[in-house]
């Protein structure tokens, strides 16, 4: 880590502590088992019951794809813990946050998996195989700096919130919607924590932070992008309007950039100003591409005589 970023890590400690206290005041404890319809469960063949068949699932193919992507993404928590522990450390307020965040995130995969297994929403054998492959491969974000990691998770946590929320709505199951809404609330609080730290970093080191923000927006990938079948499932999810390029731009990237007042700041020069210009040009390109995909989707729906979700 660069010396300047080590210094920034220390300088941000009071902000971390303040936002950790804010998080504790805002976050409401919840129990994963409360959100699972246990009465709908039954044994599988090993215990004398029946193994899963496709007819067991109450979910359509889009909801299955979205639920599996969301769950396998959450399953990689050990790798995510390592990523933030390496960048932020395990001492003081930073370490307290790493532990708190990890403990809260662990509830997500527990609750979603229990829901899917109890309701027989997806093939449990395929799900476990996917978990083994994805978790064994792990997640490696590369050589992100501390600032790049902060910028990345600011967007990623919000993206995950949107994905969970929209998946719940699309599922057609009130229980799933309630569960995923609860998970999305956690993700939103996590986003606020990271977003506030980046906001403080912009005031302390505007140019370096702006470079990190631009880099992460331009090179953004969801952490589950390396899971088996992700590309196909992502297309299915995007076509259904659960999470697509327009969602990413309008519901994730732009709101966070507005909060940071990126395009209003007067304290950028040199590499910081150049990075902001590159970011603006990139957002214009993404907007054009998102509009193109929207038009294609509308034409496809019109041809099928359907209406958007």
UniProtKB/TrEMBL annotation:
Q: Which cofactor does it need?
A: Fe cation; Fe(2+)
Q: Where does Fe cation 1 bind?
A: 74, 105, 108, 187
What is the annotated quaternary arrangement, including any partners? Homodimer.
Residues binding Fe cation 2, per UniProt: 105, 157, 187, 190
* Pfam families named among the record's database cross-references: FA_desaturase_2 (PF03405)
- A GO cellular component entry from the record: cytosol
Is Lipid metabolism among this UniProt entry's keywords?
Answer: yes
Print the keywords alphabetically.
Fatty acid biosynthesis, Fatty acid metabolism, Iron, Lipid biosynthesis, Lipid metabolism, Metal-binding, Oxidoreductase
Q: Which residues form a coiled coil?
A: none
Q: What is this protein called?
A: Putative acyl-[acyl-carrier protein] desaturase
State how the cofactor is bound.
Answer: Binds 2 iron ions per subunit.
């Amino acid at each position: 880590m660069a010396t300047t970023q080590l210094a920034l890590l220390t300088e941000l400690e009071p902000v971390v502590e303040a936002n950790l206290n804010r998080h504790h005041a805002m976050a409401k404890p919840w129990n994963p088992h409360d959100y699972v319809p246990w009465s709908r469960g039954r044994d599988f063949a090993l215990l004398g019951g029946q193994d899963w068949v496709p007819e067991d699932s109450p979910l359509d193919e889009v909801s299955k794809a979205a639920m599996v992507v969301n769950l396998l993404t959450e399953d990689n928590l050990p790798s995510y813990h390592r990523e933030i522990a390496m960048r932020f450390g395990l001492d003081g307020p930073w370490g307290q946050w790493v532990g708190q965040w990890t403990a809260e995130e662990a509830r997500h995969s527990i609750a979603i998996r229990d829901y899917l297994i109890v309701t027989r929403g997806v093939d449990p054998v395929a799900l476990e195989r996917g978990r083994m492959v994805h978790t064994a491969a792990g997640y490696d974000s590369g050589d992100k700096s501390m600032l790049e990691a902060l910028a990345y998770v600011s967007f990623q946590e919000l993206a995950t919130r949107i994905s969970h929320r929209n998946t719940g709505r699309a599922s057609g199951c009130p229980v799933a919607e309630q569960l995923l809404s609860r998970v999305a609330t956690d993700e939103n609080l996590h986003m606020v924590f990271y977003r506030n730290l980046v906001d403080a970093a912009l005031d302390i080191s505007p140019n370096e932070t702006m470079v990190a923000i631009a880099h992460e927006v331009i090179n953004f990938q969801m952490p589950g992008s390396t899971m088996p079948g992700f590309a196909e499932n992502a297309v299915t999810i995007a076509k259904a309007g659960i999470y697509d390029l327009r969602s990413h731009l309008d519901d994730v990237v732009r709101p966070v950039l507005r909060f940071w007042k990126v395009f209003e700041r007067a304290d950028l020069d040199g590499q910081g100003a150049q990075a902001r210009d590159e970011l603006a040009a990139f957002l214009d390109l993404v907007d054009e591409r998102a509009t193109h995909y929207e038009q294609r989707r509308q034409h496809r729906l019109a041809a099928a005589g359907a209406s958007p979700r």
